[in-house]
Amino acid sequence: MIDIFWPNDRGINLKQIPNLYEHLKKFRLILEGRNENANGLDKAIAKGLYYFGSVRRKLDFSLPKIVSPQRSKTNTFGYNETEWFASADVYYITDSSLKQNLKFILGLLNSKLYYLWLSRRGKVKGPMLELYQKPLTEIPIYECSESIQNKISSLVDKIVNLKREEKNTQKMESEIDNIVYRLYDLSYDEVKVVDPEFRLTEMEYSRIILE
């Protein structure tokens, strides 16, 4: 994994990585031919500083993280806690403070209500959601009690474990959807707009207790 990115590594001493530098020199024409203009990288390339990967902040790839593809037909977010690397078509959501409940956030992001937000307030290209830095940074995350966060993260754990066994997780995914509807205080009619195939009766929906 070559981890040299602009602007964090702009002061790098190339004498410390002579073998890597010699390797990158083979691809100088290709790297200089990139159409880059973000955060001054185009000016760096013009000065001969062509060896940076791209514009990106430093990231500890070993941290727990939510990952998503650049494009997807639905809100597709995954989770892992290992050293996991990917190219520019994958986005990472991390918490260096380790104070956020990422599994709770994952449950929200994969819910039907959040799909509606992404498809209406986010960016789409044909039938595909474009899960770029924007709108990812603009997605509202509901602030709720720790007990509710733990309830959703517990369901996420069960879903992850069942998916490893290639078992059906629809029941638990629906439970998360229902909790999210109640978090945002959606009426029964509003839920039917979000999910026309919603199976609960109005009475059953009203009986969902968050805490």
- Give the rounded overall mean pLDDT: 88
Main beta sheet, described?
Answer: 3 strands, antiparallel
Radius of gyration: 21 Å
Distance between the termini: 45 Å
Describe what you observe in this structure:
By secondary structure, the chain is mainly alpha-helical. It contains ten helices and six strands. The protein has helices at residues 18-25, 28-32, 41-46, 102-109, 112-121, 133-136, 146-164, 170-183, 188-194, 202-206; strands at residues 65-69, 71-72, 78-80, 90-94, 124-125, 128-130. The strands form two sheets. The chain has a three-stranded antiparallel sheet with strand order 3-1-4, with helices on one face. A hairpin with a 2-residue loop joins strand 5 (124-125) and strand 6 (128-130). Helix 4 (102-109) packs across helix 7 (146-164) and helix 7 (146-164) runs antiparallel to helix 8 (170-183). The protein is elongated and about 70 Å long. The termini are far apart. The model has no long low-confidence stretch (mean pLDDT 88).
